[in-house]
Specification:
The protein is built from 8 helices and 21 strands. By secondary structure, the protein is of the alpha+beta class.
């Protein structure tokens, strides 16, 4: 019975203490809420009154508490220093202007290529100025626009195009980023662009500097001078001695005409013209006029300076009219025939300067000029032939 009374008394005490506990909990909650509100108001007032948090608080936490997200991102080593007024001026080392120190920028700041101001806070000048969004363009540059915001197949947001920025292909970069990346601007000017064109070719003789030695009358070769293929000869140098019955008859008529009276001078002029028609050298004609005699044999000389390319005459042979006895060429100027690709033809023109490097003289360059661009395209190689004239005073370039 006593136990029953005692347990009832304990239950009665607990039932009486429960309301008190609820009231204590409610009071504590009210106190905590009031403290949080007072703390928030006090922190806001201190932050806007220019007060700062104690120095023992970490900078990252202080930045969050003081509502400075740009400072919270400022982590890592200092990579450069920017102008304290936000102007697009930067320095790699600490610097002061008008007594004001440049602001250090750390590696955690300003890493975006979006249009941002120099404090690292992303801004949208178009929205700030109340500019109208015309449409949204594809972020990958595809020709696809949308009147409303949307995402592409890769989940990338379409980019807004504002009024006055209808050209969606234009990329804008802030002045600060341009300066840091080393971009330079310069006034537009007209300049000569040089493009290196390479093409294989061969060295050929100048067709205008090739000559042959032949006779216009039937003759017999008495003696050939000791010259042969590859020898250099000068203009007027004797190549052979010959006897020609037709030339001798014309020479005798010329000598007879020279000894006649004034009336015979007309026939003398005609006789000389006949010898010239037979291609008798000028020195032989002068010898006939000087000696007033008919030579038995004639010296036949080289018509120009050059190298003997061909010798087709021997002592005692009979030479018919038009038969080639010697073939020689002047190699002081040669041609370089170059094959140029069809796609490169618009970049060349007659008169352009060209440099030629022979395969046998890889350490030497020869200057030349484009003389002719042949009006034909090789159907197999799709190349056109270009003729270049080269000076060859040392005869190094061999056809």
């Amino acid at each position: 019975m006593d136990q029953i009374i005692e347990s009832f008394g304990q239950d009665h005490k607990e039932s009486l203490s429960r309301p008190k506990r609820r009231s204590h909990l409610l009071a504590r909650t009210v106190v905590c809420l009031v403290g949080a509100i007072v703390g928030a108001v006090t922190g806001f007032s201190l932050g806007h009154a220019g007060w700062s948090l104690p120095s023992w608080i970490p900078s990252e936490l202080a930045a969050v508490l003081e509502d400075r997200p740009e400072a919270a991102r400022a982590s890592g080593e200092v990579i450069y220093y920017r102008d304290p007024d936000g102007e697009p001026f930067y320095s790699a080392v600490p610097k002061a202007v008008n007594g004001r120190e440049y602001v250090p920028v750390r590696s955690g700041e300003d890493v975006s290529f979006d249009l941002q101001d120099e404090t690292g806070t992303a801004t949208n000048q178009q929205q700030a100025n109340g500019r109208k969004i015309l449409y949204y363009r594809n972020p990958m540059g595809l020709p696809d626009v949308s009147p409303t915001p949307k995402k592409d197949s890769m989940g990338m947001d379409y980019l807004p195009v504002y009024e006055g920025e209808e050209d969606g292909s234009t990329v804008q970069v802030s002045l600060g980023k341009l300066q840091r990346t080393g971009v330079r601007t310069e006034a537009v000017s007209r300049r000569v662009l040089q493009t290196l064109l390479r093409g294989p070719g061969t060295i050929q003789l100048d067709e205008r500097r090739v000559a042959v030695v032949s006779l216009r009358s039937e003759s017999f070769i008495e003696k050939v001078e000791p010259v042969t293929t590859g020898d250099r000869v000068k203009k007027g140098q004797s190549l052979l001695r010959l006897y020609s019955p037709e030339i001798s008859a014309a020479a005798a008529q010329y000598v007879a005409a020279l000894g006649q009276s004034r009336l015979g001078l007309l026939s003398a002029s005609g006789a000389r013209q006949r010898l010239e028609n037979l291609n008798v050298p000028e020195d032989v004609l002068q010898q006939i006029e000087r000696t007033r005699g008919v030579p038995l044999t004639l010296n036949w000389s080289a018509p120009r300076d050059g190298i003997i390319l061909e010798r087709a005459v021997v002592d005692g042979m009979r030479a018919m009219p038009g038969e080639v006895l010697f073939r020689l060429a002047d190699v002081s100027v040669v041609w370089a025939l170059i094959d140029v690709a069809e796609r490169d033809l618009p970049m060349i023109a007659v008169g352009q300067a060209v440099k030629i490097r022979p395969r046998g003289y890889s350490d030497r360059m020869f200057d030349g000029t484009i003389a002719v661009i042949y009006p034909q395209i090789n159907t197999a190689t799709r190349t056109a032939r270009v003729r270049i004239e080269l000076a060859n005073p040392e005869a190094i370039l061999l056809p």
